[in-house]
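Figure 3 (text version): structure tokens given as input.
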């Protein structure tokens, strides 16, 4: 299986189900956004079984509302890409405006190139620095692989240097927005 993470592809080999020892002590709050109730239940069971809290939403708009109401608690967002009302990509574009400091993992049945062809803004979203998107994963994704990505994304988003870059980016966007409003 190939996964895009941090804008590079790498092959995953660990399908044995073994978690690294330090991961067994992590307790995260994960927001799962998917319009398929079967997938939502599956992901909830998977993450809860590993000691994590799970919040869910049926589409991007609902995901943003859940995020807004639990902003400080959510460590990682796992979102389907193609959903009604608001896609996972559209939702990810709005995440930074809420001053969310975590990362998003997108899960899709479409290859990334096909997604680019359908939505050119995807490319710009993936290139944001500091990143909003941690990984773009093709369905079907093995549970242990997704769990590992979630835990890695949580660790990366808690990294002090990453947090400083995110805060600087938020401050710059806020400053630019204020200047634009002042010129109107």
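Below: residues designed for each position.
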């Amino acid at each position: 299986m190939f996964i895009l993470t941090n804008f590079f592809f790498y092959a995953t080999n660990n399908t044995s189900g073994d978690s690294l020892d330090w991961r067994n002590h992590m307790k995260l709050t994960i927001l799962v956004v998917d319009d398929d109730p079967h997938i939502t239940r599956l992901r909830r069971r998977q993450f809860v079984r590993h000691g994590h809290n799970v919040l869910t939403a049926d589409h991007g708009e609902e995901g943003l509302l859940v995020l807004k109401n639990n902003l400080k608690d959510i460590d990682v967002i796992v979102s389907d890409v193609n959903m009604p009302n608001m896609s996972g990509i559209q939702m990810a574009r709005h995440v930074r405006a809420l001053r969310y400091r975590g990362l998003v993992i997108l899960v899709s049945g479409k290859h990334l190139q096909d997604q680019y062809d359908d939505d050119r803004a995807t490319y710009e979203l993936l290139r944001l620095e500091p990143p909003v998107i941690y990984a773009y994963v093709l369905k079907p994704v093995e549970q242990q692989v997704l769990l590992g990505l979630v835990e890695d994304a949580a660790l990366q988003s808690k990294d002090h240097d990453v947090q400083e870059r995110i805060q600087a980016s938020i401050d710059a966007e806020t400053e630019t927005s204020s200047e634009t409003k002042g010129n109107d």
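Residues 1-23 have pLDDT under 50 and may be disordered.
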